[in-house]
UniProtKB/TrEMBL annotation:
Its cofactor is Zn(2+). Belongs to the inorganic carbon transporter (TC 9.A.2) DabA family. This is Probable inorganic carbon transporter subunit DabA. GO terms for cellular component: plasma membrane. GO terms for molecular function: zinc ion binding. InterPro entries: DabA. It comes from Polyangium fumosum.
Amino acid sequence: MRAMPSAVPRGISVESRKHLEHEIHHIAHVLPGQGPIETFIHHNTLHGFQHLHFEQAVVEARRVLGGRGYLPLDEYRRLYAIGRITDEDLERARRERNGAVEPEPLLRIGDRTVTTRDVERLALLHGLDPLEPGEGAEPRFGPNVFSVLRPELSAEAREHLLATAKREFEAALARIGRDFTVADLLADLLATPVPAAVLEEACLDGSTDESADPDAIPRALDTLGIPEDARAGYLDLVRDKLASGPAKNRPERWLEAEVRKVRRVLLAHFGVEGTLPAIAERMRRDPEGLAVLSLLRASLASFGLSDPFSPIHAENLTPEEPVGARIEALFERIEHLEAWGGPAIPLDAELAARVRDTVRAHLEERDGALGPHAGAATSEIARLCLTVVHDLGPDHLRRRGFEALRALESAFGGPPSSESLIAKLTTRDPRRQMMEHAARRWEEHIGKVGPETCHRDLLLALTGEDIHEKIHPQIMRVTMAFLDEGLAAWHVAGRSLGFYDAFRKMAEHDRFFELEDLPGARDALRELPPLAVDAILQSLERLGVPELHWGPYLRRICVGLPGLAGMVHWRETHPDYPAQRAHPIDLLQFLAVRLFYEVLFVRRASLRAFGHDGDVDAFRHYFSNHLPELLVRHALFLGELPDFLAERARALFEARSAGTAASDDGALLRLADMVFDLKQSAEHVNGGHSARHHAFRLFLLAQHLGISPGELRATSLEGATRLLAALDACDPDTLTPLWQCAYEIHYRDGVLEALTQNVRDHKPYAGRREAQIVFCMDDREESIRRHIEEMRPSYETFGVAGFFGVAIAYEALGAREAVPLCPIVATPAAQLCEVPRPEAMHAWASRSLRTRALAALRDVIREVTRNPVSSYFVIDILGFFSLFPVLGRLLFPRAFDRMSRRAKHAVLPAVETEVPLDREREKGTAPKQGSLQKTHFTVVEQADRVAALLRNIGLVRDFAPVVMLSGHGSESRNNPHLSAYDCGACGGKHGGPNARVFARMANDPEVRALVRERGIDIPDDTWFLGTEHNTATDEILYFDLGDVPHDVRPAVEKLRGVLQRARERSAHERCRKFESAPKNPTPARALRHVVGRAADLSQARPELGHATIAFAVIGPRSISQGVFLDRRSFLISYDPAIDPEGTILEGTLLAAGPVGAGINLEYYFSTVDNTTYGCGTKVPHNVAGLIGVMEGASGDLRTGLPRQMIEIHEPMRLQMLVVAKTEILGKIYEKQPAIRELVGNAWVHLIAMDPETGVCMSFQPGKGFIPWEPQDLPVKTVKASAAWYSGTLDFLPPAFIRPDEPPARGQAAHA
């Protein structure tokens, strides 16, 4: 890190500032878009990657943000096991993603061909992942992995392997006495060198005298169990094996050694006695164990590898514990390396001979050729030559001998070929290879600083210190103190100056720098430039980050605290947000402060470990001269060293940090040699093949493919390598998109089967409807709509975006400010206020006075409890009284909530209100800061909105006497994410006011007259009623009931009765997914339960929100009416018959598409990776600054959805079924970039249903609309929804709900 001589760094210019601002603007796209938690707006978590195809985006997001984009592979395999994904789904997914691509042949086995498709299927279903170096197979695959075939094998593969094993064993058994001994048999079955071990033991005694014991041979043959008719041939085989050795003519020696070795091998592998009959009986009784072991040995033999899993030593056949033996051998090798001063140079026979020739040439030189100091030189030559000879082995030259040879050649010259000899030995020198390896690793490390990593990553890899563990809590403390919106009692001084200036002012008095012992912190603080952009440039210069890498480096810094950085960016992009107007902050200011701390902590860590300031050039210079240290540090802090090496390295670095180590270069060099030797020997032999990575996977692959040991032994190395290469190609990035696509196809096909059959069976309703209800398109309304239509087929329901086309800013009665009730992409057209009705003005005045008094009392209590003096005296009293509400909400939530409402009503009686639509602001009254100037709608504007909505949903004729509009919202206790349950189309707020305003517009005679002129004739006896549905309690709040005409009131009362029963049924259906709900409750009890959940202070799941959302239908209700969709579908009403050009559809897609996709994708990503893209469990959440939540008292602001909201969610991209011609959809797709991005990049799936034929076409990116192929799946039919869902907790496929024919109209009215 460069010195800090001045407040303004070199090279600052207008261009560099603009470049930096451009980079920061680009960084903002990858940050979370979530704003203050009070207004939670669902959005695509990866909105910054939405310009990419979905599959590319999740890979890029993983690289940048570290999050997973799909479910774990094991979860997809679980779904396959329970039938939620089938083989047909996988095949359809493969065709839709890749087309009809023919599989590539890999290997010919007998009369069949193994193809890439076969390997891909096995990788999909079973994984077949390699073992890690040193890992045993048993922990992952079970204790019987080497004794039984895999349980998931197909019956055909199992039968083939067992039959082949039996046949091969019987053939080998028949060779006993002909060309096999028992030792040969075991070598053939187990690929274990039993004959060689027997021969070695038999030849230990060189005596060739005839045996003194004539019974030794018969006794040994009896012990081995050799049949009588095979003994003569058996002895001939033994004599042939001993013919050229010291034990010839002593067959009993072979037989006695064979008895011992065979017994040892059979006991270790099979637990049986060492006799031929025992072997035969064991193998015939359990051919499976033989098949497995033979297949393992054949797999190892394919790559020429020894067996690291064997219970006996591969050479001397003694029992051993593999892990312990491996560690002991490693320790001995490392000790040997240290004793000889470094690694030996490996030699082949030619090089060893050349070394001997060179030494001989030096010894043969005459003394006279060495000048006046011939005697001393001759002595030195002799000493060096002796060293070389002493350290020269048959296949290696020890380090000391190599150094002697090099000194010999350097000081005294040698034959002309000696230089090429030294060059060849140097290329084989493990130490040189170590240095070259370290140099490559260093270039990789330092080259990534900027493009991919930051200084923290470099320091973590080289020192084990994570500087962000210190920086992040401090930057959170500083920034959250600035962002606080009312939680803190004391606020940061100077917040109105902006974050950067407020920090500079605050930091002057902060003792953090001294407590952390940050060198130069005060000087650096004084040298901060006045502009935040210049401070960033100054910090980047001191860190040594080149201008080319500013963007990636700063992005890496930001994504370290994505929640906080995202909140800062949200504030920056909402300049009218009240807190932003009062206390401005932006990413420039945030990064200026953030990098200030980065510079200080990088400097401290670098000084302690390396003695420099930590800029990139200083690191580059230091490690170019300390490459061995790099290798040791990297291995140590990645945890790659065994304990004994890690202790040495740690002790060496600690001694150097403490200043007690004199010169440690030699020790570091030897340690680096050891580390490199460890890495090179860790199962990287035989051309890079290893038992755990290659042979074990081939062993598993052969089982599943039904390749017998003989067939595998007949396969060439090239063939085995092709098999594994095909398996390597099936990596998670290849498999997970295929699994996900198949998962979505399975659900899509089931729903489309039901909907297409439903269209064919649909019978239009005859006569005038009794009531029509317009709900929000929200998936949570699907169930209550279905229950209403089950009970009353004469009722008709519609679905639309829940702001009902009325974009307003709404100021509720007594509220301090208006809130926007419209999608985030829309702007409120007017600000409307709820006011008391004229007859309620006196009641409102009384209520207002009491409200102000209660507010003052709350403020006093709040300040008293926060004051450090007063709280000491009153906290015990207030705490005692506060206990009762807590106990009430925990133990008796529903009763306490009812009592609280009654108490509140007694103190603050309800006031009759209205929302005037034509009231302009009184003259001389200035609007509140940030509020709209326009406070009314003209009659024409009202007619525009009424006509537009009715056309959008297809309600242009056949109006019922009552048309109810139902907005929605949610209520619960102790729930920071409450707004996430509210209406997304209303900006995360309740949609009741929008429904109320629309109903008031539609009931206005002047508005109806204008609407009638536009072709929509609303009968005079039709009344529009605004309501709000509480999706947590299923309560329905009715607005302006006093305005309902007398002749319509009976129909309204009847409607309310139907809705009450629909509430109960909806609550009953919801209870099936609540673990704590009563089992098999009555509908009334179910309703009481959901009401109690919403009032329960301890309830983390008051409702399940949009969990399981997966589908959307944009079309007439007749498409989905009578189909059980399990609350998983958005239902948007649209009539293609009145929209021949697709104008209405275009607007609907632009409104509903982004909203639906945002909800669906936020649930998707919060489910697949709740740690990165979600906000974890609610349990440790604390509200921070009234703007978000964090876990515990520190950490980042958590974005996304909590675990309790997504526990039962099934992550699928939204399947959007649109009833329209593909020509119309194609034109909209080409015209609208927003739709093209979502659909063309596969963030949502588009399906077109022809409005005339009902034929479906699926849109495939890059291909267009492809005919959907019906699968003729059966769809169950039941009389009521409860008959289908009762007693189930998990996923349910669609079903037809076909209640009995309704009674006659008179009977229905009586009912």
